[in-house]
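ARCHIVE RECORD
Type: protein–small molecule complex
Small molecule: nicotinamide-adenine-dinucleotide
Source of inputs: curated submission
Record status: active
Notes field left blank by submitter.
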Amino acid sequence: MTFNKVVVAGGGVLGSQIAYQAAYSGKEVTIWLRSQGSITRTQPKLDALREEYRKAIALMDTPEGKSPANWCKGLAIDEEHFNAAKCLEQSENAYKNIKLELDLAKACEDADLIIESMAEITDEKIAFYKKLAPVLKEKTVIVTNSSTLLPSTFAKFTGRPEKYCSLHFANHIWKQNLAEVMAQEATDPNVFADVMEFANEISMIPVPVLKEKSGYLLNSLLVPFLLCGMDLVANGVSDPASVDKAWKLGTGSPRGPFEIIDVVGLTTAYNIIEKYQKVPGLIKPLLKKMMLPYNFKAIAAMLKEKIDQGKLGKAAGEGFYKY
Ligand SMILES: NC(=O)c1ccc[n+]([C@@H]2O[C@H](COP(=O)([O-])OP(=O)(O)OC[C@H]3O[C@@H](n4cnc5c(N)ncnc54)[C@H](O)[C@@H]3O)[C@@H](O)[C@H]2O)c1
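STRUCTURE (tokenized, with ligand):
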């Protein structure tokens, strides 16, 4: 089944990007929002995205814009498929055509696909699915963009567990166009294939995650990698530049762990470490077994020292490196 009528539930950072990218790709898009206040917060995000797309297309039309670092694969997969005027027209049409709707039943009555991208709060997502289930037609498929919550937590509240899975995007979806499609136990393989195809149609590069896995593929690799790098420095084994050098020279990768942390932001890294440290005593030994014996305390102290000095990462001009 091809999904043409798409509803995005939630118009935050990611919801607005998903809606804009789907509309850019010619889908009929409605963003469902819960209040007038949400509309006044979402509209400026769409205004900003229109400007982002305009700037990205203009850059891609210059020699500098052709470099892999600047090229936005979500806007045109390669130079051969790039026509600046056509891309600009697609973006302007997206901006004009996205509908904002407060009435859930009206927004979703004929939807092919609902993309839930609401705040990461389990109870609120459950309440939403319970409200949503009775207003949907049988054909409608639902996906969640949740980064940390597993789809099996919500499947039974959707009224259609076989038509439910995760479709996880990365921030700046027009550029970082990875889409992780993750099944839960009840997901129908045909629905899974349709969701993979939809991701393709909106110029994402989909990867299948056939079993539930917290962290999907990317974060299952990235989080332990970054923790290992920080552990080496926090334990006095080496310094950030040398750890990055070892990784880059040894593997040919463009960035080492500390260069990545500077881009992600030290506060985000610190918050994740704090979360691990606050795990209740009873399951700590289990976590220790699973997570290897990282020195979380030393890592947190190292990050906190930098954060207190305003060295928050690349966006702040300095993190582990100066920019
Ligand atoms: N920010 C990221 O980089 C990123 C990346 C991938 C996935 N995600 C996931 O996307 C989802 C949204 O994240 P975000 O960064 O866009 O968050 P956000 O805080 O920017 O936006 C959340 C949106 O949900 C709405 N919302 C919150 N509670 C609601 C409720 N009870 N009913 C209806 N609407 C409600 C808010 O009004 C807002 O529009 C989360 O599940 C998150 O894990 C985020």
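CURATOR ANNOTATION: The chain is about 45% helix and 10% strand.
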